[in-house]
Structures are given as structure tokens and as C-alpha cells.
Write a structure and sequence with these properties.
The protein is an all-alpha fold and 439 residues long. It has a domain of 128 residues: Butyryl-Coa Dehydrogenase, subunit A, domain 1 (Orthogonal Bundle), CATH 1.10.540. The chain is built from 17 helices and four strands. The strands form two sheets. The chain has a two-stranded antiparallel sheet. A two-stranded antiparallel sheet has the order 3-4. β1 and β2 form a beta hairpin.
Length: 439
């Protein structure tokens, strides 16, 4: 356990006011948080679980009932207890809450008001982390009236299971703090500056922009130890780059008629259905459409902000929908869309065939987005190929008669051959990282 893994800035020289014992307590808990809490707390947060294996360790370190005396409690000073909570809070608010609630709201009432028999029975076991106490609170948005409470309990073997609607006192606000804003605004600007140009490149993409932004923030951050454990710079920068790259894909689409993502390819198909061909002349032939589209992007971002802030809790709950239900809903709407456009058995069969093909491609690690782009650009490429051969009177050498055309065809051949060679030489894992599916 490396001492000094984290050292905060002490602007007012407060460190010199602590006793040697208080500094030793702080450093011990600080090292424990860096070595045992931070590496795994992200997985527990995602899974919605608590690291129960750490509770006996809390007892070994004297974190439970730290300020109490006797009955196995260490009797640390109030300042030392505050430093313990400060370091635990740096790792995770839930863990700090567990230790402070166990110490102040469970163990202290027994220590101060319990009988000698109660103290001898409960406090030593609680201090070792062998017993965990609990206490009751009314719901914050209603009160103690049982007829209006949201939380219910269902009896199961060995106890009860709550319905999960309880809002605990340690539940924080989703609003960003001043420190979050201070650490985020520069990554936002850098991510935007990285993402938009890469998104505008015909060979760019949101994944490339996000990885470049993450690497940049990791080099520039003042908190390198937090990366991989929820550093806000590692989220703000890549997300800004991802959003900027998504908007940047409209540049090659509107100016060259070239979709670089599956979403852009679908937009191109929509343009073609209305008899519009994206390209340099689109700004002259349909200026109202182009500028209306650009204005709609600005309005859409404002509306997303208005909708997402109050509805963030609802969107998070959507992640709890079982995947089979999602797949069933997607299949239902895809089928209804196909029937609505053209009620044909042949097209329904095509929907099923392409759905199975997409599933097999994802199962074996092949990216799906290039296939969608190919379906849109394929007929256009065939039309232009026939036109070029008709002008050259069937002479295939006209396709490589200029350095530019020969270079483009060479790149296309490499794009087909290199993945095959990588797989043949056992470099499939490298290929999977390079050609990561972004659909």
C-alpha cells in the first residue's frame, strides 16, 4: 500500500494544526481508500451493490465507532473522526455514509443511553464489523403517514425485500457542483475542438474523436489517479468530442454527398426519397432545406437540454428494461415500418434475412455500420461505374488512368485485404479494436 498516492492542496496550512496521531489516522484511511475503495467502487455503482467484504476491514482499521471509548472502540478525537469521514468521502459517499451512520446514529445511542448489558453485547461486535445496525426514517417527500408512503416491503425467506423506491438521506443531487463546472469547461472546449474536425473527415468517426479526447485529458489532468475511477474530465471531454463529431458528419454529407456513419447514410436515403442529391449544389438548389436543417440542430440541442435535465431519472430507468423486451419492441416497430411503406411478403422476408445477418455479424465481431453505408452507396457506385465505362467504351483501364483514382482504388483494396491478413495471422483482437462497431 503506497503512502502518498493522493495529496490534496493545503492552502491554509491546516495540516500543521493536526497532531501526529490525527495525521497518521488520516494517512492510513487515505491509503486504504486509494488501494481498496477506488479500484472497485465503479463496478459496485454500476451493479447497484455495496462492498460488504470491506465491512470487516472497516472494523480492523477502527473506522466503526471511531470516536467512542471502550468496548473495542478506538477512542479517536473528534478531529480524527472528521478526517476519517473526509477521506472516505473522497472514495465514495455511500461508504462514508455507512461508517458515519453506523458510528453516530447506531453505536453512539447504545454507548450513551444503553444498559451495560446492551453495550457489552452489541458495541464490540459492531466495532469489529460483525454486526450492522439500522435505524428508521420517514420518507422525505411525505412524512410518517403509512397510507402515503412509497416504500413497501415483501416478505421472503430470511427477511424482507423493499420495493426500491426509497430515497435515502445520502442520495445527492444530479446537479453539477462548482468544482465539477471548474473541471469540465476546458475539457468541453477541447473535446469540441477535437471532435468536429474529425467528424467532418470522410474517414473520421465519433470513436476516434472520443479516444483522442480521452488521451488528451489524461495527459493534461491534475488528477491522474482518478482516471479509470470516474474522473469528470474523462467523461466531459470524450462526450463533447462525440457530440461534436456527430454534428461534423453533416459536413461531408451535405457538401460531398458522402455519408460516413450509418445515421448519415439513412439521412442520405431520406434526401434521395424526396428527389434531393446532397452535394455542392444543394446549397444553391435547396437553400431553405439546408439552413432549416442547420437551424433545427440548434433548436434540437436546446430542446434536449430542456427535456433531459428534468427527465434524467426517467431515462436512467430505461436502462433497467430487460433486453428481450427491447429487442421485441424494436422488431415490432421495424415490422410495422416495413408494412407501412410497402405491405409485401418479399420485403418482410428481406427484413428477416438482414436482421439475422446483422445478428450473425455482431456475434462474430464484424462492424454493422459499413454494411448500412454500403447499402446506401452501393446503387450510386454501380450507376457511376456504368456511366464511366460507357464513356470509355468499355475500357477498364480508365478506372486507374489518373493517380487519384488509382490511389482510391488501392486504398479500397487494402481495406479489404488487411483485415483478412490480420485474421489469418491471429491478430483478430487488434482488428476488433481498430474496427470497433459504432452503430
Amino acid at each position: 500500500m503506497a503512502t502518498g498516492a493522493y495529496r490534496g492542496l493545503d492552502y491554509f496550512g491546516i495540516d500543521g494544526l493536526y497532531t501526529e496521531e490525527e495525521r497518521a489516522v488520516r494517512d492510513t484511511v487515505r491509503d486504504f481508500v486509494s488501494a481498496r475503495v477506488l479500484p472497485g467502487i465503479g463496478k459496485h455503482f454500476t451493479a447497484g451493490t455495496f462492498p460488504h467484504d470491506l465491512v470487516p476491514v472497516f472494523g480492523e482499521l477502527g473506522l466503526l465507532g471511531a470516536s467512542l471509548t471502550g468496548y473495542g472502540c478506538p477512542g479517536i478525537s473528534p478531529v480524527g473522526y472528521g478526517l476519517i469521514c473526509q477521506e472516505l468521502e473522497r472514495g465514495d459517499s455511500g461508504i462514508r455514509s455507512f461508517c458515519s451512520v453506523q458510528s453516530s446514529l447506531v453505536m453512539y445511542p447504545i454507548w450513551a443511553y444503553g444498559s451495560e448489558a446492551q453495550k457489552a453485547r452489541y458495541l464490540p461486535a459492531m466495532a469489529r464489523g460483525q454486526l450492522v445496525g439500522c435505524f428508521g426514517l420517514t420518507e422525505p417527500d411525505f412524512g410518517s403517514n403509512p397510507t402515503g408512503m412509497l416504500t413497501t416491503a415483501r416478505k421472503v425467506d430470511g427477511g424482507y425485500v423493499l420495493n426500491g423506491t426509497k430515497r435515502w438521506i445520502t442520495s445527492g443531487s444530479v446537479a453539477m457542483t462548482a468544482q465539477d463546472w471548474a473541471r469540465s469547461w476546458k475539457p468541453w472546449l477541447r473535446g469540441t475542438a477535437i471532435g468536429f474536425p474529425i467528424g467532418a473527415m470522410p474517414a473520421g468517426g465519433a470513436d476516434i474523436a472520443s479516444f483522442l479526447s480521452y488521451g488528451t485529458e489524461r495527459k493534461l489532468t491534475r488528477h491522474p489517479e482518478e482516471f479509470g475511477n470516474g474522473a469528470i474530465e474523462g467523461v466531459a471531454g470524450p462526450e463533447a468530442a462525440n457530440n461534436a463529431a456527430a454534428a461534423g458528419t453533416l459536413v461531408p454529407l451535405l457538401t460531398l454527398g458522402l455519408p460516413t456513419t450509418a445515421t448519415a447514410a439513412i439521412m442520405l436515403a431520406g434526401f434521395q426519397q424526396f428527389g434531393l442529391q446532397p452535394g455542392p449544389l444543394l446549397f444553391a438548389t435547396a437553400p431553405k432545406l439546408v439552413w432549416g436543417l442547420i437551424a433545427s440542430l440548434l433548436i434540437a440541442n436546446i430542446m434536449l437540454l430542456v427535456l433531459n435535465l428534468p427527465l434524467i431519472r426517467l431515462w436512467v430507468k430505461l436502462l433497467t428494461i430487460p433486453r428481450p423486451w427491447l429487442y421485441g419492441g424494436i422488431l415490432l416497430f421495424a415490422t410495422l415500418g416495413t408494412i407501412g411503406v410497402n405491405p409485401s411478403r418479399a420485403e418482410l422476408a428481406m427484413l428477416m434475412i438482414f436482421g439475422v445477418m446483422g445478428y450473425l455479424m455482431r456475434l462474430h465481431g464484424y462492424p454493422i455500420a459499413p454494411v448500412v453505408v454500403g447499402l446506401i452507396l452501393g446503387p450510386m457506385a454501380e450507376q457511376q461505374l456504368r456511366r464511366a465505362l460507357a464513356i470509355a467504351q468499355g475500357d477498364w483501364t480508365t478506372l486507374v488512368s489518373t493517380p487519384l483514382s488509382a490511389g482510391l482504388i488501392g486504398l479500397a483494396v487494402l481495406a479489404l485485404a488487411v483485415p483478412m491478413l490480420l485474421r489469418m495471422r491471429g491478430r483478430g483482437a487488434v482488428l476488433a479494436q481498430v474496427a470497433k462497431d459504432d452503430d
